[in-house]
Amino acid sequence: MVVVKKSINFIAVLVLALFSMFSYGDEIQHKPGNKVDTAEEINDYIAHHLKDSHDFHFYTHNESGTHYSFPLPVIVWTSNGLKTFMSSEFHHDDAGKVIVEKGDVKLVKLHSKIYELESGASTINFDEHHHATNAHKVLDFSITKSVFGMLLAGILMLLGFGALARGYKKGKMIPKGFSRVLEPLVIYVRDEIAKPNIGEKKYRKFMGFLLTVFFFIWILNLLGLTPLGFNVTGQIAVTACLAIFTVVIYMFSGSKDFWAHTLWMPGVPYILRPILAVIELVGFVVIKPFSLLIRLFANITAGHFVVMSLIALAITLKVSFGPVVSTGMSLVLSLFIMVIEILVAFLQAFIFTMLSSLFIGMAVEEHDDHH
Amino acid sequence: MDQLLHDFSPGLFFMQAIILLILIVLMRKFAWKPILDSLQTREDGIQNALDAAEKAKLEMQNLQADNQKLLQEARAEREDMLKEAREMKNKMIEDAKSEAEGQANKMIAQAQAAIEGEKKAALAELKNQVAGISLEIAEKVMRTELSNKDKQLQLVETMLAEKSLN
After folding, report:
1. Contact call for A186 and B36, based on CB within 8 A
2. For the sheet containing A100-102, what is the strand order?
3. Are A114 and A140 in contact (CB under 8 A)?
4. 3-state secondary structure string, A50-86?
5. Which domain holds residue B51?
6. Residue A32 banded pLDDT, cuts 50, 70, 90
7. Does residue A18 register a pLDDT over 70?
8. Cβ–Cβ of B16/A190 closer than 8 Å?
9. Residue B94 lies in a domain
10. For residue range A270-311, what is the model confidence (pLDDT) as tens digits?
11. In a designed cystine with A98, which of A50, A93, A170, B60 is the match (CB 3.0 to 4.6 A)?
């Protein structure tokens, strides 16, 4: 009951936060109303969604051109030190037109990235490939939508699993309420992912990482399917970070046997050993993490892309089939893909954790039989 | 690839690394460690209970086997005792029978001996009496016969004749 009450409180806070978002006018948009109704605009919209963004956008009122969103803090490391301000100062501009002056640095937002104008420049100039010529990207530690999503996932995890842990501490060995759902998931990760791949003796040390990563990816994948429009696990920086954590963990917990087999493979002619060592090292340091990060990134990005494209069918097919048929088609197809995406959300979390534990298992394995 | 590199945000990478690191540390401390420990404790408890039940079952089986053995032994012993008693009974009957037979035979023999003795005594007495009577008769006959000379002669004559015939 306590858990339920707590989650109700949490949802209430979330809803309040959503309603407390404020709207602000937007004079800069190139097109009044910001309507999305041509194929090109749809592509732009999807591309924009797949990127990280600096404010939390809900919808735009077409007639007045008012955006309903709430701003997130921007924290950038410029040539003149750390600058912080709210993203509302950009007024939803994403084309580099609004210049925010902080001290003596001029900042613009261009395609979801923050650029610093070179000294003396007053507007951003582009070359023929639409690359900025007189501005450079800054290190952006902003609480972007993705960071916000991560924090949200982290809080959800701490609340949910913290409640499960507290339930045990009270001396009740059988969890109640929502914890009863979480417990089998923890057991699943332990018994089906960690134990078979790492081994009964050594799995315990890695459970903290594996469980955290599994639920982190899963929750973020699922958040990505909500209309809130998160695309955290579709950010290559996020998946790269996750993969690098895995590499660091298995490289630093490698057993003597692992290093012996990687660097100086026994039972192979001496001439081949250095070549094999290079292949193995590249495999462990580059190929394996790369496959991890690309798999998660590509699956989630593709999922978002497909779902959004199918939703956009309602617009693109309206001319040839009429509004009712095109909306119906887009509804049925996107519903179908959405169900698959729910499966993919779990599957990708599972595969990432599974492969991580497999690689960790390879690294900590001790061979009894010496060839 | 170019697009991927362009989209890669070092700042987001940094934030993600920090958040993940903090999250792993917090989750380990506040969630995974107590959860996994409790699960382990619970599973050990269940395993112990199962083991104890198995052990109790085994003990029960042993006990039952012991009981069975005892019961069998008792039954065998009873059987032996009954057999012995039956044998003893038969022997006693046999003995009694043979003794009774011997006794009867002895009694019969005694009776027969007694009868024989009586018979002999009776015969002897009879003989004596017959001899006495014969003597008397003979005396009387002699007296009557020898009172007449002719008759004496005649007697001698017949006797002689008889002798020669023999």
Report:
1. yes
2. A100-102, A105-110, A113-117, A135-137
3. yes
4. HCCCCEEEEEEECCCCEEEEEECEEEEEECCEEEEEE
5. 20-165
6. very low
7. no
8. no
9. yes
10. 888 888 888 888 988 999 999 999 999 999 999 999 998 898
11. A93
If one counts the domains in chain B, the total is: 1
A154 closest CB neighbour out of B23, B34, B42: B23
Indicate whether B15 belongs to any domain: no
Tell me which chain A residue has its CA closest to the CA of residue B4. Answer: A236
Helix (H, G, I), strand (E, B), or coil: what is residue A2?
helix
Chain B hits for A51, Cβ within 8 Å: 7
- C-beta atoms of B7 and A154 within 8 A: no
Q: Which chain B residues are Cβ-neighbours of A166 within 8 angstroms?
A: 34
pLDDT at A15: 54
pLDDT of A345 > 70? The answer is: yes
Domain spans of chain A, in order of start: 2-32+66-142, 147-364
Q: Which of B105, B13, B138, B126 has the alpha carbon at shortest distance from A232?
A: B13
| Residue of B8, B28, B39 lying closest to A237 (CB–CB) | B8
Helix or strand (DSSP H, E) at B81: helix B33-146
pLDDT of A224 above 60: yes
| pTM of the predicted protein model | 0.74
Interface test with A, best of B1, B2, B16 (most A CBs within 10 A): B16
Distance from CA of A142 to the nearest CA of B (A): 8
More confident residue, B145 or B93: B93
First-to-last alpha carbon distance for chain A, in angstroms, is: 59
Q: Is residue B121 part of a domain?
A: yes
Q: What is the dihedral of CA A26, A30, A36, A38, to 10 degrees?
A: 180
Banded pLDDT at A11 (limits 50, 70, 90): low
Alpha-carbon distances, residue A182 vs A160, A170, A171, A210, B76 (angstroms):
8, 17, 18, 15, 64
Query: Over the stretch B3-49, which tens digit does the pLDDT of each residue have?
Result: 777 778 888 889 889 999 999 999 998 889 988 888 888 899 999 99
Contact between A261 and A284 (Cβ < 8 Å): no
Check whether A13 has a pLDDT greater than 90: no
Residue B40 Cα distances to A86, A178, A280, A357, B52, angstroms: 47, 20, 37, 20, 18
Kindly state the helix (H) or strand (E) to which residue A136 belongs, with its residue range: strand A135-137
Q: What is the mean pLDDT of residues A36-65?
A: 78
- Cβ distance of B36 and A142 shorter than 8 Å: no
Residue A199 CA to residue A366 CA, distance in Å, equals 10
Question: A112 vs A335, which has greater pLDDT?
Answer: A335
Tokens of B156: 């001698």
Question: How far away is chain B from the Cα of A207, in angstroms, using its nearest Cα?
Answer: 8
pLDDT of residue A272: 82
Inter-chain contact B34–A169, Cβ cutoff 8 Å?
yes
